[in-house]
Design a protein that fits this description.
Length: about 300
């Protein structure tokens, strides 16, 4: 008999193994459990506002009217909706440093009027933080307008300005974990002249933490000098990078109008989700949402940190 070539012998052994009866699947015994491992697929949420050339809100966009890019790569939009009713989780950050002492009373009353207009009891939650040399949560999350009003009126100005610490800690310790069934809109409303001289956190660290927490910043500048100051540029950067807006009322009386504009914007936004096809490398990825409709401009956050 001729010897069987090795390849043929191997194939014969594989066939024989396949022909053998397979053992039955193990039966689950009473009290025995099996662990099912699920692999999550990241979906990146993007809230945005659409306006025309006169800054009027556009409220009739559809999924086909926008395109989204992650690190300049076009992404597929998985879902798209107009979000006018999401629960709000708001951090109201009020500068109580010496630099705003002469405007403080008016700021307090404007903030109270804003809260009266925006809070929906049982749905929205607001916390209040004051910052000067230090930061202090003077009222934790609540929908109780009386508690918030009292906390605002009890605040007193004095000391330096730890603005970056206030943004950093609000995003990390309060808003990053804020949630509700069906999602929430995480927002910081910052009232300040934008100057900082006491923070441990750097400006870019504060901004990065806000981006990690998916927080939108709306900033109301208290500089009424009539000339742009370095602090104004800080407020603009925080707002632009997170998809919010910065307001610079020329007169104190105009501050109420700024609050009204923020209220309207929070009720005039869209939400989309996309599944990124870019590397999950823990780095910061740029986001660009582009309107396909002529004459429409989109305001959205400028990026996110990709989860590994």
């Amino acid at each position: 008999m001729k010897p069987v070539p090795l390849v043929v012998a191997f194939l014969l052994s594989v066939c024989a193994a396949i022909a053998q009866p397979q053992p039955p699947a193990p039966q689950q015994k009473p009290g025995q459990t099996y662990v099912t491992i699920k692999v999550g697929v990241e979906r990146v949420p993007v809230l945005f506002t659409a306006v025309d050339r006169k800054d009027r809100y556009i409220t009739d966009l559809g999924k086909e009217d926008v395109q989204v890019y992650d690190n300049k790569k076009k992404q597929e939009v998985l879902s798209f909706s107009q979000e006018t009713d999401l629960p709000l989780r708001v951090g109201l950050l009020i500068d109580t440093s010496n630099s705003i002492r002469d405007r403080f009373k008016f700021e307090q009353e404007a903030a109270i009027d804003f809260l009266r207009a925006i809070i929906r009891p049982g749905k929205d939650q607001v916390f209040l933080m004051g910052f000067d040399t230090n930061t202090e949560v003077v009222q934790d999350f609540t929908d109780n307008l009386e508690l918030l009003t009292k906390a605002i009126r009890d605040m007193r100005p004095g000391g330096g300005t730890a603005l970056y610490d206030a943004v950093f800690l609000s995003a990390r310790d309060k808003l990053m974990t804020a949630s509700a069934e069906g999602g929430v809109r995480r927002t910081i409303i910052l009232i300040s002249d934008g100057e900082d001289n006491q923070s441990r956190a750097a400006r870019e660290e504060a901004l990065a933490m806000a981006q990690r927490a998916e927080v939108t910043l709306f900033c109301i500048g208290t500089n009424i000098s009539g000339t742009e100051q370095p602090g104004d540029l800080v407020l603009k950067r925080f707002a632009t990078e997170t998809g919010g807006r910065a307001f610079f009322p020329f007169r104190l009386e105009d501050m109420s109008t700024s609050f009204q504009n923020i209220s309207r914007e929070l009720r005039s936004q869209y939400a989309l989700f996309f599944r990124p096809n870019t590397p999950r490398d823990s780095t910061f990825h740029t986001i660009e949402v582009v309107s396909m409709r002529k004459g429409v401009k989109v305001r959205a956050r400028k990026g996110y940190f990709a989860k590994p």
